[in-house]
Structures are given as structure tokens and as C-alpha cells.
Amino acid sequence: MAIFLDTGKIDVIKKYHSMGIIRGVTTNPTIMVQDGITGGFEGIKKQSIKIANLIHPYPLSVEVTNNNPKDMIRQALEFSKWADNINVKITIHGPNGELENLQVIHELEKKHNIRINATAMMSAQQCFLAALAGATYVSIFGGRVNNMGYNTREEIARLRQLLDDFELPAKIIVGSTREVVNIIEWLEAGAHIVTVIPKFIDGMIVHPYSKETVQMFLKDGAAFEKVK
Ligand code: E4P
To answer: How far apart are CA 122 and CA 100, in angstroms?
Structure first.
């Protein structure tokens, strides 16, 4: 079980990576835009290479920016040359439910030996099919699932059962964190990985009662500091 960071910000990744608590990073075009990455495709390339080198050998997910099958394959081949720990995110289907994406995922994994993170999924059944197609990672967006009135924990548990029963090697990544509690509850439900918004990691670490306890230790410890 592992925690990934869902961000493209170098300084933030450095901070948590140096604590030894993250095992990978995920990005998507929206994250790249929000993080202020400019300079077109070259901008994504530069940033991705920096992140991949920083966290190596842990994996970095970089998402294609186009849903044309030929372009997805071309971009995936290109991304995977940038660093050997880059895997490529492909959405489960196109913007209007186009079905070619699973074919693309299958071809990239089986013919080109590229690790795929099948993404933008909201249900166990979508993830199950992506795993059958050969995706290394299957990403379900927990916060969005809950927001639609479904129960993310139930979807994760069903999915994990299916992957185990069918002996599928795909790893479940749950993203779209909305609350600190999501991280542990989704791992407990059966996720292999939860990809977390950085501020929620702080929320996991800092506790008001721990603060009070540390303040007590430091106050009493100061008495010893004074004696030379
Ligand atoms: C996961 O891999 C995605 O990058 C991300 O978690 C989506 O989250 P959102 O629903 O907050 O956009």
C-alpha cells in the first residue's frame, strides 16, 4: 500500500519525497495548468523530466493531451522516452464515450511495453475492463464517485476482489481526494495506492493534541537547556 502525490509542483514533491513518505507522483493536464506549467508540450516535457528524475525509481504518471488514437500512441511513445519511470495516463474512453481508448491501452501495454495508468474512471466495472486490457494502474476518482452519490469504499472493495479473483496484476490508484480521512479509508477498503493532494498529508501529520504535547516537552526541556 502506498501514497502518491497528486501534483506537478517540484518544491512540494521535493518536500514530501525528502520525508520518505511518497512512492510516486500523478499529474494530469488540469494539474499542469493549475501548477502554472507553460511553454506548450516542451513545458510538460521539462517539468515531467524534472519530477521523474527527482523521484526515480518511483513512478510518475503523465497524461496524454489528445484523444485521437494515433496521437495518444505517438505521445505515449514520446513520454516513455523522457524517463524510464514515466507511465502514461489514458482515459477509459473519449469525451463522448468513444471506445477506442481501451484498444490504445492494450496496444501500448502489449505491443510497445509501455506502462499505462487508465484514468478518469468512476466505477469498479470500468477499472476491471481496463485491467483486463492490460493497464498497469487503474485510477478511480474517489471524490467524484462520492459526489455522484455512490460509495467509493464499496467500489474499491468490489474492484479489489475482482482483480484478486481474476489474478489481474493491475494496481488500484484512488485519486480525487476531498478530505484527509479519504487516504486511510480508501487504503483500508482495498486500494493499492491513494494519490493525495499535498495539503492532506499535512492534515495527516499535524494533530492539535500532539502540538500541545510537544509544547509541554519543550517547555519542560527548556529547564535543562538553561543548565550549562
Ligand atoms: C488522479 O489521478 C487525478 O489526477 C485526480 O486525483 C483527479 O482529482 P479531481 O477530482 O480533484 O480533479
So the answer is: 18
Contact 134, 171 (CB under 8 A): no
Amino acid, single-letter form, for residue 216: M
Sign for the CA dihedral angle at 44, 50, 51, 57 comes to: positive
191 has a pLDDT exceeding 90 = yes
Q: What is the largest CA-CA distance in the chain?
A: 74
pLDDT tens column, 152-168: 999 999 999 999 999 99
In this structure, which amino acid lies at residue 206? V
Give the atom of ligand 1 at the shortest distance from the alpha carbon of 30. 12
pLDDT for 193-218, tens place per residue? 999 999 999 999 999 999 999 999 99
- Cβ-contact 28, 119 below 8 angstroms: yes
CATH of domain 2-199: 3.20.20.70
* Size of the chain, expressed as the number of residues it contains: 228
Compute, in angstroms, the gap from residue 120 CA to the centroid of ligand 1. Answer: 8
Task: Say how many Å lie between the CA of residue 141 and the centre of ligand 1.
Answer: 6
Q: 87 CB under 6 A from ligand 1?
A: no
